[in-house]
Amino acid sequence: MVVSLLTDPKTAALARPAPLPGGIEPEQRLIVCGLGWARYLAFDKALGDDRPGPRFYYLDGDLEIMTTSNEHERIKKWIGGFMDIFFEESEIQNIPRGQATMRIFEEAGAEPDESWCIREEKQWPDIVLGIALTSGGLSKLEIYRHFAVPEVWLWQRGKLEVFTLRDDGYDRFATSRILPGLPIDLIESCVAIPGWLEARHTFRAGLAGRR
Fold it and tell me: pTM for this one?
């Protein structure tokens, strides 16, 4: 089933973006249209529950299968680490949800790069993070709107964009409404630091300097 689905030109369209500046490997996305909920679950099961990848996003019958890259995973880990420091230094209770799969029957499914519940456990996270080195694929904002996720953070074009849920969808804001003290600009500058230890030290020092 897996092979036939991936090779069927009637349902699948594979996006192969060119390498990014500096030779950075981008994500690759396979869009499968008209899949249906049962086949989505069967396809997910066929690839294995404990697989490290690819990521699945489902919306109203269409499935996006996205592979990640070393740079994608580095940015995810860097931002996740910065958030650990921020929560600890700010003494904000949180429950990390990581890449835990989110599903609403026959409507939507997602595997965020990182996610958090703030102050207490909830059915769906308060904040989800998605890394997008390239554009395309299913609308992540529309997917997360089905779950009524209060904030969606998207790393795009070297910036951390914050989207807050409103009555008619998501609006972009310069700061987090849930975590107003979070320095978005500091996260962006520290993500650019290639060394893990130096990036964390710089972020922690930057936080201390803003108190």
Answer: 0.89
